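Quick one, probably user error.
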């Protein structure tokens, strides 16, 4: 059992615990009590759906543990990555497929990642609530999030499609020996998945039968029009109906060496493609909206190159100064400071939103010769007048120190986030206008948030390691 999910005895009975990684005080400040009320699902070996409810929370080793009814099993990601018996992994994926199909028939879609499912020793499957899965994986660290979730999920798919894609990546791992995308950087993995940059399974898994190869390749290459879960279930068959080796044909040593050579060629080519495409992915909506693709690309590259020479840093700043400037950076569209202030994927949604608005503002500025974006706080302080600019940013920010030591600081942030009403949570227009000249400025709308920021000191520099955000 993974250390983030473990068994222990509580009040005379065995229970299953999930480590939130939060201290008692942070747990309360983050209003994480909802994790106790969010239910999961337990699919029995016979196919019945049962509700799995957490029953309480307890502090163990200064970390709050959500606990519920005991369940003997192993997280699916642990089985896929560490179990050496291929037939055991194959049967575990079969159990998972059967369980998600049963839930999907009821229009229920659990967390799609292998880290979000526990395969019981008897073939039953436990799906804790998606919120509890996310909290547990986040507490285990970035490497765990990458290995148990990011490498297997398409970042743009949800529901049944997300489950189908995950089934494809898990089977790719089973038959080839590794996940389709092996980068250690989260953004690189997501970009590679979006672009369909992976070694074709007929090369990654020499000798795999043609039907299975074509099915998995199709799922991973055509994520927006993918084959259903039922087709995968029929291909794998029932438990023990077909052994792992039965999916392969014998190949000669010469064929094997040829496949190895082709695999390395694909690996090098995909690395180059991913580095190029990952930069432009986030900005495709901006390019379409402005209708000036080449000019916009030049603008982005210029800004990127300029940023390399004047990259901001949090060196010399106190934790409270970093937190304040992080939220001020929304209104000023200072995505570079936000990137410098955050560790890895921390605040990724915030940063992507600000970056999208920054690019759009530069393009509109070139067309309209006005200040395209006005910080929300400045607009409010001026009496919320009617203006020709978009209103965006954080307003009414309050920061409260929860705790601070020599190398860790916790703050609670309360604020209103103002965005144009036609923008999605990701900071992209919900509709694409024909050109920047015809674009209007919709009325802004605000959303209230309460967040807990955790900053840590590394090499004498403070940075934001975690943001737990809840909309009020």
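Nope, works fine. Designed sequence:
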């Amino acid at each position: 059992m993974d250390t983030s999910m473990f068994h222990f005895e509580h009040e005379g009975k065995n229970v299953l615990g999930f480590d939130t990684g939060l201290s008692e005080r942070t747990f309360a400040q983050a209003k994480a009590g909802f994790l106790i009320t969010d239910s999961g699902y337990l699919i029995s070996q016979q196919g019945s759906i049962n509700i799995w409810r957490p029953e309480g929370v307890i502090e163990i080793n200064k970390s709050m543990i959500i606990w519920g009814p005991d369940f003997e099993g192993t997280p699916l990601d642990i089985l896929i990555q560490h179990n050496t018996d291929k037939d055991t992994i194959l049967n575990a994926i079969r159990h998972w497929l059967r369980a998600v199909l049963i839930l999907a028939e009821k229009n229920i879609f659990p967390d799609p990642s292998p880290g979000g499912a526990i395969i019981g020793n008897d073939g039953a499957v436990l799906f804790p609530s998606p919120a509890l899965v996310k909290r547990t994986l986040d507490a285990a660290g970035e490497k765990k999030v990458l290995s148990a979730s990011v490498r297997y999920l398409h970042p743009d798919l949800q529901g049944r499609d997300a489950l189908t894609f995950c089934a494809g990546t898990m089977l790719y791992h089973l038959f080839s020996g590794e996940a389709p995308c092996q980068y250690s950087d989260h953004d690189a993995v997501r970009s590679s998945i979006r672009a369909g940059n992976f070694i074709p399974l007929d090369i990654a898994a020499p000798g795999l039968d043609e039907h299975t190869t074509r099915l998995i390749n199709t799922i991973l290459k055509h994520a927006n029009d993918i084959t259903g879960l039922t087709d995968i279930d029929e291909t794998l068959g029932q438990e023990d109906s077909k052994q792992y080796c039965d999916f392969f044909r014998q190949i000669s040593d010469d064929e094997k060496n040829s496949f190895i050579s082709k695999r390395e060629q694909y690996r090098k080519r995909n690395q180059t493609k991913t580095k190029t495409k990952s930069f432009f992915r986030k900005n495709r909506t901006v390019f379409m909206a402005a209708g000036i693709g080449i000019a916009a690309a030049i603008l982005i590259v210029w800004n990127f190159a300029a940023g390399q020479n004047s990259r901001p840093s949090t060196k010399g700043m106190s934790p409270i100064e970093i937190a304040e400037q992080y939220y001020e950076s929304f209104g000023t569209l200072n995505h570079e400071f936000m990137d410098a202030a955050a560790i890895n994927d921390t605040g990724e949604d915030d940063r992507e939103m600000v970056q999208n608005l920054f690019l759009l503002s530069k393009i509109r500025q070139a067309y309209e010769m006005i200040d395209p974006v006005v910080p929300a706080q400045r607009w409010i302080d001026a009496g919320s007048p009617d203006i020709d600019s978009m209103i965006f940013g954080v307003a009414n920010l309050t920061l409260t120190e929860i705790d601070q030591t020599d190398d860790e600081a916790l703050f609670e942030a309360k604020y209103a986030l103002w965005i144009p009403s036609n923008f999605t949570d990701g900071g992209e227009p919900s509709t694409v206008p024909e050109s920047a000249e015809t674009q209007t400025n919709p009325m802004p709308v605000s959303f209230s948030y309460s967040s807990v920021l955790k900053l840590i000191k590394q090499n004498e520099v403070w940075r934001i390691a975690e943001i737990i955000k809840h909309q009020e």
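The two ends are 35 Å apart (CA to CA).
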